[in-house]
Specification:
elongated; 16% strand; 13 helices; alpha+beta
Amino acid sequence: MSQIKENGVESTSKNNAENPKVRFKQLYKKALDLGLSEEDFNKIDAIKEIRKAIQTDDVLSRIWNIVWKCCLLVLSITSLIVAVAVFVFVFQWPIENKTLFKVWFALTGEEAGSERSEICAVNAIDYMAEMFRPPTSCDFCRNVSSVEKLEHVSPDLFEKVYAYSSVPVVITDGTKNWTASKVFSYNFFKSLYSSGSPALQNVEENCQFFPYKTNFSTLEEVFEMNEDRALMKDGSAPWYIGWSNCDLSAANTLRGHYSRPYFLPQVAESSKTDWIFMGSPGYGADLHIDAVEHPSWQAQITGTKRWTLEPPPECYFQCPKSIQVVIHPGEIIVLDTNRWYHSTLNVGDDISITIGSEYD
């Protein structure tokens, strides 16, 4: 046992003596004992090279740490995107699973039973929908340099050239024989969707509401704004909102003042849902793309609106980068908002009111 210990001590001492770090420390201490100063020691070429190598190693180590952290961040973000994509695919976003509803509303502090009155527990995120949008063929925009304005368009011509080609067009006499321009106003809609009315309740519970850049959270709040702001008095804050109507009674009232656009193909069926957009000059919708099922038309009832159209990113080098068209009262723009990115801006002096629908 004693021999083993002695051999172990001898082996350890030998290893320490051969260790460069240990040997260097021994030589460094011996040099100091012999009277070599720190300044003299630093003049030795070998010491300079060693320190330079150490500094290089430190820089490389820092760079490697940064690269590693960036790679880890990218990997985390990629994993999150994949997880979200799988989640969206499995649950067919928006989520309509009652059990998930109950868990979600419990976590957010909603009252029991909310899962029976809400359409979605979690609303779709616009940029996520755009991120996972499949690329489209650029044939629809390749030869489009402007938006044509036409009148007296027959249903046959409209079907052949515009209805399903995704080529945007404006029909200047689209609202002829309509009475909407004489009836539709802020106060008209305020009366139609009066507080506590079934029409308002249906919109709040079953329809979509778009506050855009305003501070409104519901359609009811829109019709509770003060009169100065509603009627665009000087110094009042601008506003612009939109909503879909899901109430049959309100739909019958609305359609008593407008009819199916005369130029739509005979075989085309319009959606049962009306879309209404309303607001003061200087406001509108930011650039976006929709996720609806069909092309749509939008009639300018009052006010004037400027539309800006852009192709999807994959078509930037094959199609015009931007097209603008101004829609005046009485005109109808027909547009495939699933393909064309679009933004709007109310221009002029009057309140802008538009109404529209999809067609198949």
